[in-house]
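FAQ

Q: What does a record look like?
A: Structure on top, sequence underneath. For example:
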């Protein structure tokens, strides 16, 4: 649903649009002259004239994104930022019109603004996610205009995923995000207004007492384990630590067998024997 500005804002936007549309379109040679003056001499008057001549392009591009529920004036403002970025980076020595070059910058700036503000939930960060968001949004607008709901078949989702080089999970997530809306924490959920949505959310984190108990238990468990390990011989300790206590870099039976000069089956036997010893040592520790 498009954002509706108040009367004063609409008038301000209209004045800006009318003034922008009254600016003359630049000839190619004069446009290059202005761009060179800004690049080489930092002539702000030349920059100002170049920018003002192409605000009409900003307005046209911003108009295409009015149905994302954001103020039209903000879209224009973001587009103007993109226009200024384009002017800063434009190389007038290349055989390309500034209007062609700045089009991408304007659109990119507006799209980034929409992604930042369309939802309080982050929609996506990569270029592929951005393309996915706008592709889905266009599909959603078209389908809803025809009186339907956004619901794609698995085949259609796979085609979109392949086309944009994203995985199917991202496509499903984007479809879910666009078919729902944000729910604010202070949204009333009872007829009398006594309860808000936040009142129904439970804090699943441990309370301070539980955290202290868990920390104390973990310290005791680590102490008991070290005491039990000390009862193993050197080779048993090496195997148990390398196989199970190496923080995600556990060794294989074959690797340890090669290191200790025995077969991997022998490593397995020693490992099992060491486990039996540990089990016996820890059986009285309330684990």
């Amino acid at each position: 649903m498009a954002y509706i500005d108040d009367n004063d804002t609409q008038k301000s936007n209209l004045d800006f649009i009318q003034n922008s549309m009254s600016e003359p379109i630049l000839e190619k040679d004069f446009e290059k002259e202005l761009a060179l003056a800004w690049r080489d001499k930092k002539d702000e008057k030349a920059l100002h004239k170049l920018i003002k001549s192409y605000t009409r392009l900003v307005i046209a591009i911003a108009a295409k994104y009015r149905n994302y529920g954001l103020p039209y004036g903000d879209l224009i403002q973001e587009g103007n930022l993109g226009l200024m970025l384009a002017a800063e980076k434009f190389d007038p020595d290349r055989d390309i019109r500034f209007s062609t070059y700045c089009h991408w910058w304007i659109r990119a700036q507006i799209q980034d603004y929409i992604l930042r503000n369309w939802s309080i939930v982050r929609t996506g960060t990569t270029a592929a996610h951005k393309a996915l968001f706008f592709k889905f949004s266009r599909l959603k607008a078209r389908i809803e205009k025809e009186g339907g709901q956004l619901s794609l078949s698995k085949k259609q989702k796979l085609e979109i995923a392949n086309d944009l080089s994203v995985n199917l999970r991202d496509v499903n997530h984007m479809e879910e995000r666009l078919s729902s809306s944000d729910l604010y924490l202070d949204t009333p959920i009872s007829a009398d207004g006594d309860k808000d949505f936040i009142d129904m959310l439970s804090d699943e984190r441990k309370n301070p007492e539980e955290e202290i108990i868990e920390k104390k238990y973990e310290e005791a468990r680590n102490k008991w384990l070290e005491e039990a390990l000390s009862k193993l011989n050197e080779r048993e300790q090496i195997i148990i630590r390398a196989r199970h206590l190496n923080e995600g870099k556990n060794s294989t039976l074959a690797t340890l067998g090669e290191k200790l000069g025995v077969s991997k089956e022998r490593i397995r036997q020693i490992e099992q024997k060491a486990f039996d010893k540990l089990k016996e040592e820890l059986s009285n520790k309330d684990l």
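Q: Is there anything notable about this one?
A: The first helix runs from residue 7 to 21.
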